[in-house]
Specification:
The complex is a heterodimer. By secondary structure, chain A is mainly α. Helix content of chain A is about 75%, strand content about 0%. Chain A contains twelve helices and no strands. By secondary structure, chain B is of the alpha+beta class. In chain B, the strands form seven sheets. Chain B has a seven-stranded mixed β-sheet, with helices on both faces. Chain B has a five-stranded mixed β-sheet with strand order 19-18-20-13-21, sandwiched between helices. Chain B has a four-stranded antiparallel β-sheet with strand order 4-5-7-6, covered by helices on one side. The chains are: A mainly alpha, B alpha+beta. Chains A and B meet through helix 2 and helix 6 of A and helix 2, helix 5 and helix 11 of B.
Chain lengths: ~325, ~500
């Protein structure tokens, strides 16, 4: 019990450190970058004395961070300064985090499911399929998204011009919000972030190892089904891998939302950083850090649930 | 496997054509690089906000189709003999989008709110010349000025706000009005959509109801997509076409290009606050090294300029001749300034003459210009570095900290072409640090002139003066084009605000 309590406390401390660390790093980066939100105003020099006080930019950076953390602890993430001046950061997050989380979840499921399925296919030596997956995982997110948009648009437009089809409701990408655009985003994120490729390789190697394992050989000799056995033994490493990929997926999400004109938290973070909107950037960074920390925690819990050996004391 | 790959176009067509895009009675959809952050004319800081404001709000005066000042919310005005007082009679057939009547109180409130220090309005400079504003009766206001004004109506284009929507004249940026604006314009803001777009609907009670039922502003941050989306009929209007997209759009029969004349010019602005660029001979030498035609050709068409006005401007001095591209003249000037060419590099006291060109990332075609300019200058013995900045870095480093050698940028003006803030020694936009007693005198003369001919003469002299002083290398004015689907009829675009005459536009 005391061991469990210690583990929970450690997890909580790590969670808190991640969240505070994210807020501090973002604030320091914005402070170090040239310019501030007042500089963006046409007559910023004249307005500076009033706005610096109003926006708390007259305070030393440590004090700004401390004040922000104090407010955040009470659930107040402040208001946006330059991206949506005056709008509550919480409201802005509420309107954008959902769609981004859905994309992340979709990409994670596609990466894990696709990686596992492909590994099952290629573990028996299908070199061509393995090569295709690896080649598709090479282009970065922005390039893959851009090429996909250009390619799909050009194809559909050619069909429209030839009289074969009427323009679909989702056409043209990426301007129209649609299920097609979301599906494309999920696929690009899964492939372009390298999640699918890495999970595929790791699962393939693990599967090859497990298939040679004595307990699998024994089960097979008894005529018992081995698929469930393989999955149960594969799942813990699969979950660890997925949790480790989460920060990379988040990074890819920021770029992807910009390229596909998606109105999510990644796109908002980009705007907040380029417009030096510290409260908004810190709010999103804290959300992202919480997600990564929660993802790690969830993966640990699932591993404990799946693998009884991990629950035994060392 | 082969059969899967051999999908016929028609089969794919059926798979793709889930539903067809509607064709008629659609809104007019246009693209902006950046969605407006705030829809309150007191805090306008981007062109996308200004364009949206043009649809929702109105000023006392506006431009007519010949770009002459015409009454909008004003009906008539009377200027006192000493030109320090203007009495304006307002239209009585105007109402706000929430149904309240428009009155003189709204005009006085707007001016006071813009002047109120507590508002910290980005537009405060537009009313700095007005000493006081008072209500004479419900539809008459009196404005008093600090000095005689030649044509005060030309400065009364700022947008009027509804007094009844605010608690006092110290308006905060956080005021709920920022995303629930109420204006008197031909379109009212209807809703913010989930995809980040903004829908405006026609204000039916407007005295001159618009032809378009709805306008949708869509944020398309990547300029590479914008022309394609117009081509694919996902947009009806493009505010500005990139030069490289002109040929593609021109070929499409469903797209109409609309050329328009802007009061914009590109320049290389030197940092005169010290360093080698404080010496006019060095700046003039750079002027002789830059081949403007060669820089302009790859990015579009336009006219090179020799001063701070466009060639079609009445203030442009056509007698000023451009500096010839001449390595000999450049060398003579640099030698006179104490530089020597050592192993092909201009140096003074053992230090090479190094030039850092700073440019704004979002300035269209800036990369091409900077790369070609770098090549031109390096060939002539300068060491050239390049620095591309985002908006905040630009404002912080260039405007505030004056941390630059030379900037590549452009200035855009409304039809008043008031360059005072850029070239007066006390000008708020004079970040180059240019200071000339003669130029200040000419700018004061132009500002105080009652006779338009006197103003024209002063500004033409100013053109020659700044050309000689060379605080900038004046480059060119680019030909500009908007593009519309041919379904949009009766289009005339305003060269600066785009939507000023959008109430006349119709959609088939």
């Amino acid at each position: 019990m005391s061991g469990l309590l210690r583990a929970v406390l450690l997890r909580a401390a790590a969670f808190l450190a991640t969240v505070v660390g994210a807020a501090v790093i973002v604030q320091l980066l914005l402070w170090a970058a040239p310019g501030d939100p007042i500089d963006l105003l046409p007559n910023g020099d004249e307005l500076r004395p009033v706005l610096e006080v109003e926006w708390g930019l007259d305070l030393p950076v440590p004090l700004r961070i401390a004040r922000w953390l104090g407010h955040a602890a009470r659930g107040d993430l402040g208001t946006s300064l330059s991206v949506r001046p005056g709008a509550s950061v919480l409201e802005l997050l509420g309107g954008s985090v959902g769609s981004s989380a859905l994309l992340l979840l979709g990409a994670m499921v596609a990466g894990m499911g696709g990686g596992l399925a492909l590994a099952a296919l290629t573990a028996r030596g299908r070199g061509l399929a393995r090569a295709v997956v690896q080649v598709l995982s090479v282009p970065p997110v922005f390039l893959m998204a851009y090429l996909a948009v250009v390619g799909i648009n050009a194809t559909v437009w050619a069909l429209v011009q030839a009289g074969h089809i009427a323009p679909p409701s989702w056409f043209a990408l990426p301007a129209e919000p649609s299920a097609v655009r979301t599906a494309l985003a999920v696929c690009v994120l899964a492939f372009g972030s390298g999640a699918l490729g890495e999970i595929h390789v790791a699962c393939e190697q693990e599967l090859q190892r497990l298939r040679q394992a004595p307990f699998v050989t024994a089960a097979r000799a008894r005529g018992a089904p081995v698929a469930g056995l393989l999955f149960r033994n594969l799942a813990p490493s699969l979950l660890s891998l997925a949790a480790a990929r989460l920060p990379l997926l988040l990074g890819g999400l920021v770029v992807l939302e910009r390229v596909l004109l998606l109105d999510g938290a990644g796109s908002l973070l980009w705007q907040a950083c380029t417009q030096r909107d510290a409260p908004l950037a810190m709010g999103i960074a804290v959300c992202a850090a919480s997600l990564v920390a929660a993802g790690g925690l969830l993966a640990d819990l699932l591993r404990l649930w799946i693998d009884p050996r991990l629950r035994r004391p060392a | 496997m082969q059969s899967i790959l051999r999908i016929r176009p028609v089969g794919l067509a059926l798979a793709l054509a889930v539903t067809s895009a509607p064709a008629a009675a659609d809104p007019l959809r246009y693209a902006e690089d950046q969605a407006p952050g705030i829809v309150n004319p007191l805090f306008t800081s981007t062109m996308s906000e200004a364009r949206l404001g043009e649809l929702v709000f109105e000023g006392l005066y506006t431009d007519d189709l010949d770009l002459r000042t015409a009454p909008d919310l004003a009906e008539s005005a009377e200027l006192s003999v000493d030109r320090t007082e203007l009495v304006i009679r307002l239209r009585k057939d105007v109402s706000w989008h929430d149904g309240e009547p428009f009155t003189a109180d709204d005009v006085v409130f707007t001016i006071q709110a813009m002047k109120d220090q507590g508002t910290a309005s980005t537009e405060a400079g537009r009313v700095a010349w007005i000493d006081s504003a008072e209500v004479v009766d419900s539809h008459t206001v009196r404005l008093r000025f600090g000095r005689p004004e030649a044509s005060p109506e030309d400065k009364l284009f700022f947008k009027i706000l509804p007094k009844h929507r605010f608690d006092g004249t110290a308006v905060k940026r956080t005021d709920p009005f920022r995303n629930k604006p109420v204006g008197t314009g031909p379109f009212a803001l209807d809703r913010y959509n989930d995809d980040g777009s903004i829908t405006l609907r026609r204000y039916e009670q407007h005295r001159d109801a618009a032809g378009l039922p709805e306008i949708v502003m869509r944020e398309v941050s990547d300029k590479n997509y914008q022309a394609k989306l117009l081509l694919y009929e996902s947009l009806e209007a493009l505010v500005r076409v990139l030069p490289r997209d002109l040929a593609m759009l021109d070929k499409d029969r469903g797209v109409e290009l609309y050329p328009y004349q802007t009061n914009s010019w590109w320049y290389l602005g030197f940092n005169l606050n010290g360093g080698p660029w404080a010496d006019p001979r060095v700046r003039q030498a750079i002027g002789h090294m830059v081949d403007k035609e060669a820089l302009l050709a790859p990015i579009g068409t336009g006219d090179t300029v020799t001063g701070p006005f466009v060639p079609s401007s009445p203030f442009y001095n056509h007698e000023v001749k451009a500096r010839a591209v001449s390595a000999g003249q450049a060398s003579a000037l640099l030698e006179e300034a104490g530089y020597k060419k050592v192993e092909g590099v201009w140096t003074r006291a053992g230090k090479p003459l190094t030039l850092r060109i700073s440019a704004h990332k979002s300035l269209e075609s800036a990369q091409e210009v900077v790369i070609n300019l770098q090549s031109q200058l390096q060939r002539q013995g300068l060491t050239v570095e390049v620095d591309f900045m985002d908006e905040a870095s630009w404002r912080g480093k260039v405007w505030r900290d004056r941390d630059f050698d030379v900037v590549l940028s452009q200035w855009s003006f409304d039809r008043n072409e008031d360059v005072r803030e850029q070239f007066h020694s006390q000008g708020s936009r004079n970040f180059t640090g240019y200071a000339s007693a003669e130029t200040d005198k000419l700018l004061d003369e132009a500002r105080d002139a009652i006779d338009p001919q006197q103003k024209k003469a002063a500004l033409r002299k100013l053109h020659a003066q700044v050309h000689d002083d060379a605080p900038m290398v004046f480059l060119w004015t680019l030909d500009s084009y908007s593009a519309m689907r041919t379904r949009v009829d009766d289009v005339v675009v305003h060269p600066f605000y785009f939507f000023t005459w959008a109430d006349d536009w119709t959609l088939d």
